[in-house]
Each structure stands twice: as C-alpha cells, then as structure tokens.
C-alpha cells in the first residue's frame, strides 16, 4: 500500500547542514495503523511530511499502490494529495469559516458539486459526532472538537491514507482518549491506512498495530507494537519502553519494606498465572506485593510487579531462582 524506499531529507542552513531523514525504508500495509515514535528532532515529522510531499525527499522513493510519487508536480501532485488526508497537531482550521465550510474546503478544491458537498459534510459531522456544530466557528469549539473537525476535513475526499501529525499532543488526557478512539474507529469502518507520529508511547500502545522507532533521522527498530514493548532490541527502544513501563516506588515504601526486593516482568498468558502463590506453596517464604501494574497491548498482557520476599536465606535464593523461571524478567532491586 505505502512503501518508503531509502528516503533521505537534508536541510541546508547558513552554518550547518541537518540530515533530518537518513536512509529510511518502511513498508506500511493497507488498512493498518502504523506508528512512528521518537523524541523531538528524531525526524519523524519530516518523514511524515514526505509521504504527501509537503517535504520533497532529496533521494529515495515514496510508493503509493506501487506508484512512485516522489517526483510528482502540478496536477499530478494535486491528484496524489486527494488520496492522502492530513491531521495536524494544532488543527490548522480557517478561523473565519464555519465548521461546515472548514470540512467542505478540500471538497470544493476537488471541484465537487455543492449538493454532494452538503450531503458529504453532513455524513462527516455525524461520523465525528458534531452534528449540531456545523454552523459554529472554530473559536466556539473545544480543543477536542477542533481536532474532530480536522479529522473530518482530512477524510472528506475518501483518502486511502490518513497522516496524523501528533494529533493529541495539544489535548488533555480525556480528550486524547476520545480522539484516538475516533481514529481507530475510522480505521475500522473505512479501512483507511493510518500513519501516526507521536513522542508519547501511550498513544502508540493505544491504537497502533506496528511501530517504527526513529533516532537521529534513522529508523532504529520496527516491529509489531506488542513485540516492541515486550522485547525491544535497540538500546533507544529499550529506554523508551522502560520509561513507559517504569513504576517509581515511593521512598516511604522502600524504607519500610525489608527482605529481598524484586522487580518482576510478566508477559502474555504468564501474567494470568498464580506465580506468587505457587512460589509460596513451593518454598517456606512470604511475599509482600509492594507496587505494580498490568496493562494490555493488542489484547496481550504486560505487567510489572515489585515484591518483597522474606524467609531463610537459602529458601529465598531458591524462590528467586524459581520466580526467574516463571516470569519474563526478574531484577533484584535489593537483597538482604
């Protein structure tokens, strides 16, 4: 559906040259939600903008349904952009136009008749749950409503690809959830291929099927989302995942908790096994749960648990070895 082949983008300044995207190749499947994550300056926004040629690559190919669009200009470029919708971080709405007219903009640009526009905009307003806001102006909308208008505008011409540039970074947590659910719903209902960039792992976990990790303009790792979170390969990916799954234990709990303190990582079905109670039955020890959480990514569990183990030293060592065999990862935070 969408293939990026050895794409390079370089920016030339007065005093320095920046290689924003370096030798990036990706193959994005039809109908999937593909995430691109990285810290600020990683090149992810530049890469996204090359897909609809808002940024022309210096070299490489952008293939949409097998057609290389990298060198398209004029009418050919306009035709390509009709197939690719774009959702912006800061909405990019025309403030002097109503919600209806903002959504109608790409339809009018494509030469669609007003009668068709009227019906299409009504459909889109219903899809994004803004049926009663068609005659409102952007200044009268909340941030979440503005982004819903942006999404409706982006899919007005029935594009095959929807690009989302940090679509939730300007929104609060509750609104972020609703916008991500809307994007996922559009993906399911319309079969549109979604490419979403973010610096937030929570966004990637929530809706993406696969993800590419970018650092210094390069893709350093690519995998399905669950595999990336459960077994990241590259050091930078491991750092991102660790931050996402990190649980800080309050100092008060550390000071009052004695015994061997362990950090246990659970993956998949093992997260649902009675590992701790089995260990207690197997060895004369006690286990106290200090802190933890479990979450589901693509319906598979990832859990982190901090526990304190008490007992005679040899039995504690035996229990640690047993737990190490039963969980995906065991880290001894403190041993007494």
CATH class of the largest domain: Alpha Beta
Number of helices: 12
Uncertain regions: pLDDT < 50 for 5+ in a row? none
- CATH H level of the largest domain: which superfamily? P-loop containing nucleotide triphosphate hydrolases
End-to-end separation in angstroms reads: 56 Å
| Spatial strand sequence of the major β-sheet | 6-7-8-3-9-10
Task: Report the sheet with the most strands, covering strand number, pairing sense and barrel closure.
Answer: 6 strands, mixed
How does this structure look, described?
With 336 residues, the protein is of the alpha/beta class. It folds into two domains: 2-243, P-loop containing nucleotide triphosphate hydrolases (Rossmann fold), CATH 3.40.50; 251-334, 2-Layer Sandwich (Alpha-Beta Plaits). It is built from twelve helices and 14 strands. The strands form three sheets. A six-stranded mixed sheet has the order 6-7-8-3-9-10, with helices on both faces. Strand 12 (286-297) and strand 13 form a beta hairpin. Helix 3 (99-109) packs across helix 4 and helix 3 packs parallel to helix 5 (143-154).
Key terms for this structure?
336 residues, 2 domains, six-stranded mixed sheet, 12 helices, 14 strands
Secondary structure layout:
Blueprint (H helix, E strand, L loop, with lengths): L1 E11 L4 E12 L4 E5 L6 H8 L7 E6 L2 E2 L5 H9 L1 E4 L11 H11 L4 H14 L15 H12 L6 E5 L7 H18 L2 E6 L2 H7 L2 E6 L2 E7 H6 L4 H11 L5 H6 L3 E8 L7 H8 L3 E12 L2 E11 L2 H14 L2 E6 L2
Helix pairs in contact: 3-4, 3-5, 5-6, 11-12
């Amino acid at each position: 559906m969408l293939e990026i082949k050895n794409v390079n983008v370089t920016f030339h300044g007065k005093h320095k040259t920046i290689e924003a995207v370096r030798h990036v190749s990706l193959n994005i499947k039809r109908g999937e939600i593909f995430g691109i994550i990285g810290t600020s300056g990683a090149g992810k926004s530049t890469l996204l903008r090359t897909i609809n040629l808002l940024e022309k690559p210096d070299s490489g190919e952008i293939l949409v349904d097998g057609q290389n669009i990298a060198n398209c200009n004029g009418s050919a470029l306009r035709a390509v952009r009709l197939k690719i919708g774009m959702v912006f971080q800061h909405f990019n709405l025309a403030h002097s136009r109503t919600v209806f007219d903002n959504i109608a903009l790409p339809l009018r640009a494509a030469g669609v008749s007003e009668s068709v526009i009227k019906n299409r905009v009504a459909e889109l307003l219903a899809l994004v749950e803004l049926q009663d806001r068609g005659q409102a102006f952007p200044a009268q909308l909340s941030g979440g409503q503005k982004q819903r208008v942006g999404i409706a505008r982006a899919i007005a011409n029935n594009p095959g690809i929807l690009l989302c540039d940090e679509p939730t970074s300007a929104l609060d947590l509750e609104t972020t959830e609703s916008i991500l659910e809307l994007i996922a719903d559009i993906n399911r209902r319309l079969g549109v291929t979604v490419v979403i960039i973010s610096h937030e792992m929570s966004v990637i976990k929530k809706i993406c099927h696969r993800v590419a990790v970018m650092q210094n303009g390069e893709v350093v790792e690519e995998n399905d989302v669950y595999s990336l979170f459960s077994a990241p390969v590259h050091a930078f990916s491991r750092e991102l995942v660790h931050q996402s799954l990190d649980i800080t234990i309050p100092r008060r709990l550390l000071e009052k908790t004695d015994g061997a303190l362990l950090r246990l990582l659970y993956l998949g079905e093992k997260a649902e096994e009675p590992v701790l109670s089995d260990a207690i039955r197997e060895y004369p020890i006690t286990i106290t749960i200090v802190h933890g959480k479990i979450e589901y990514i693509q319906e598979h569990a990832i859990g982190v648990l901090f526990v304190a183990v008490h007992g005679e030293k040899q039995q504690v060592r035996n229990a640690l070895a047993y737990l190490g065999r039963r969980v995906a990862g065991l880290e001894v935070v403190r041993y007494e």
